Each structure stands twice: as structure tokens, then as C-alpha cells.
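Quick one, C-alpha cells below. Sequence please?
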């Protein structure tokens, strides 16, 4: 029964087996009784209808037995769920950010990562934060799934007990590229984890605007090679003429710094023709004016 990779897996699997077993038992049993009655009381065998009186014993049995079975299912489900909400005091805390269409992780020392790395046999608490719409953080191998709701604090915790790399996905439909919102969790030895956590990725040669765009998942919707995705490509975008829809009317504009700043702060004000409205959330409360200027400066270089 230890097919999962976390301490919760056994309890969740046991609940599933019990509920599935009871469901299959009743499916087979009820189907068999129905077939028996169809044959036993067919018109051919009973040409003359007869009245069958009720049975108090049967009434009690098919009320009491299902009630007991439902309580059994509830008990095992509750016993599997209850530990998931009791976080150990020594748990490592990691912030999980969900946004269209990417998960990112921030550790206590400020390290940012596109995938989750955790030590084996140590409790880890994930603080779930959505930057835009509803998402659901799902680790099938750990038997864990929890929602990220905008404006609501939520969490999950686990203790991984098998080394390896496991899939993480979004289990809540969150838009056009929902199926591509994938990442992973790597479970490793404590010494390897500590070494990884202490390493800082050097961004000395990277434009700060590019760093900000990676951090805010801009490349989940926009490309740099001219190909079309959810939003317009950044290739050669600065100084380019585009037809945009503003308040239901079309007009031609030249993409400059002011337009980019307006599109970041109020993305639905001017929509480039051929693209959908409402897919991008405003970043006026996420990015400062200085950070937006850094992004604009970087976009000048994308040819």
C-alpha cells in the first residue's frame, strides 16, 4: 500500500480502497438483485400479478447497513484528512505563487525557483498564493491537492519519504494554457538540499527587466521569437505599428514606452487586434514604476 511518496499517501489510498470496495460491492450486488427480480418475477413466470407485503426487517436492514457503511467511509476519509491540516512546528515554509500559467516558489532565504526542491523525511509547509485567478496545486504522487484562491490564505503540508522527481500540475481550469501549467518537486537528501538552497543563481549578466519578466511569468503568454501565443510576441515590438481596439473602436498606434506602461497597468484598455480581452490581469499593484521602466528598457533590445 506504500505506492505514494509522502506520509499521507497510505491513508489516502486506504480511504480510496475502502470507498471503491464498498461502491463496487453495491454496484455488483444491486445489479445482481435487479437481474434476479427481472427473471424471477417476469410475466412468463408470474402471469397473474400478486401483492407482496412489506418487511419491517428488510426496512431496518437497508437503512442501518448503508448508514454504518457511510460512517465507515467518513471515518477513514476523516482520519486521512485530519493530519493534513496539522502542520508540525518545525516545518520548512515555502511560498507557492500561482499565475497564468506558471508555478514559482520562494524560500525563506529569498531564493526563487521554477520548481520545488525539498529534503527527504522533513515536513514542508507550502503557503499558497494566487496572483490572478483560481488555481489548484496538485502533486499526484503525494496524494495532495489544494486550491490557490486570490485574496485568500491557504496552505498544505507534506513530508516526502521517497527520493525522486515528481510531477506537479494545476488541477483547476485557469484559462487557455491551463494544461501547460506544469512543474515538479524534487525530493533529495538533506545535505544536497542545503547545498542547493545556499546556491544563488547569478543574474549579473542578465537585464533586470528580463529577470522581472521571468519572475512574473510574462513568457507564459508572450514569446520572443515572433510566434503567436496568448498575447503578442515581444520580438521587434518596440516602435512597431499595431491596430488596437479601444472602447470598441479600432485605431492604429505605435508601440512606445507609454503604451507598454499602460498595457502593463491596464491591459484591457487597448487590445491588439486578433487577441482576446481579459486574459491579462493588471500589474499596477504588483510592479513599481521603476520595475516597469526596466521591463520597457529590456523590450527595446528585443529585435
Amino acid at each position: 500500500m506504500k505506492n505514494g511518496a509522502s506520509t499521507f499517501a497510505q491513508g489516502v489510498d486506504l480511504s480510496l480502497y475502502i470507498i471503491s470496495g464498498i461502491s463496487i460491492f453495491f454496484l455488483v450486488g444491486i445489479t445482481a438483485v435487479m437481474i434476479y427480480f427481472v427473471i424471477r418475477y417476469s410475466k412468463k413466470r408470474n402471469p397473474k400479478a400478486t401483492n407482496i407485503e412489506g418487511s419491517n426487517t428488510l426496512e431496518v436492514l437497508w437503512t442501518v447497513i448503508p448508514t454504518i457503511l457511510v460512517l465507515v467511509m467518513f471515518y477513514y476519509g476523516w482520519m486521512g484528512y485530519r493530519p493534513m491540516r496539522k502542520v508540525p512546528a518545525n516545518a520548512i515554509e515555502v511560498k507557492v505563487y500561482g499565475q497564468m500559467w506558471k508555478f514559482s516558489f520562494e524560500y525563506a532565504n529569498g531564493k526563487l525557483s521554477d520548481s520545488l526542491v525539498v529534503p527527504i523525511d522533513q515536513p514542508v509547509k507550502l503557503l499558497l498564493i494566487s496572483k490572478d485567478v483560481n488555481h489548484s496545486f496538485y502533486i499526484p504522487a503525494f496524494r495532495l491537492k489544494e486550491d490557490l484562491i486570490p485574496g485568500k490564505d491557504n496552505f498544505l503540508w507534506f513530508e516526502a519519504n521517497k527520493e525522486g522527481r515528481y510531477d506537479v500540475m494545476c488541477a483547476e481550469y485557469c484559462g487557455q494554457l491551463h494544461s501547460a501549467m506544469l512543474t515538479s518537486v524534487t525530493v533529495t537528501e538533506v545535505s544536497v538540499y542545503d547545498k542547493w538552497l545556499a546556491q544563488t543563481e547569478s543574474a549579473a549578466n542578465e537585464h533586470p527587466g528580463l529577470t522581472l519578466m521571468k519572475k512574473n511569468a510574462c513568457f507564459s503568454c508572450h514569446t520572443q521569437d515572433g510566434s503567436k501565443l496568448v498575447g503578442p510576441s515581444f520580438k521587434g515590438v518596440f516602435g512597431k505599428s499595431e491596430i488596437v481596439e479601444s472602447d470598441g473602436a479600432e485605431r492604429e498606434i505605435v508601440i512606445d514606452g507609454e503604451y507598454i506602461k499602460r498595457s502593463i497597468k491596464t491591459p484591457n484598455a487597448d487590445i491588439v487586434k486578433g487577441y482576446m480581452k481579459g486574459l491579462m490581469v493588471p500589474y499596477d499593484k504588483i510592479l513599481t514604476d521603476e520595475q516597469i521602466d526596466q521591463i520597457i528598457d529590456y523590450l527595446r533590445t528585443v529585435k
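The first strand starts at residue 92 and ends at 99. The chain is about 30% helix and 25% strand.
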